[in-house]
Specification:
alpha+beta, 4 strands, 3 helices
């Protein structure tokens, strides 16, 4: 297969567009945010817009602020807790033993009476 295709990879309407066709660009302000991993992020905002105090770092996802000397610390992530861990927070060992003894007695009483347990 021979022959070159001069417009290969192009599409209809593609090409350089100048400001004359698009109109004037809005005036912008560049705002720099700093995260605790020493990443620096430059975000462009409209001059009319108020830049937020915090921004998520696009590299690591940590919060970033305008203060390069004191970037915000990484949020503390609580480890996953099991159901048993939550129960142990609410009950003492003595309470748990009492509840377990009560449940075992109730179960044995049902078995003796012939009740079906599902």
């Amino acid at each position: 297969m021979g022959g070159g295709n001069a417009i290969r990879g192009s599409r209809v309407g593609a090409g350089p567009m100048g400001e004359a066709e698009r109109g004037q660009t809005a005036p912008r302000q560049d705002v720099t945010y700093y995260c605790s991993n020493e990443h620096r992020t430059l975000i462009a905002f409209s001059v009319e817009a108020q830049a937020p105090d915090a921004w998520d770092c696009p590299r690591c996802g940590l919060p970033a602020s305008l203060d390069s000397e004191n970037p915000p610390p990484a949020p503390r992530i609580e480890p996953y807790k099991t159901h048993l861990a939550y129960v142990k927070e609410r009950r003492s060992d003595a309470e748990a033993e009492s509840i377990l003894d009560e449940a075992v007695k109730l179960l044995r009483a049902r078995r003796k009476s012939g009740d079906i347990i599902f």
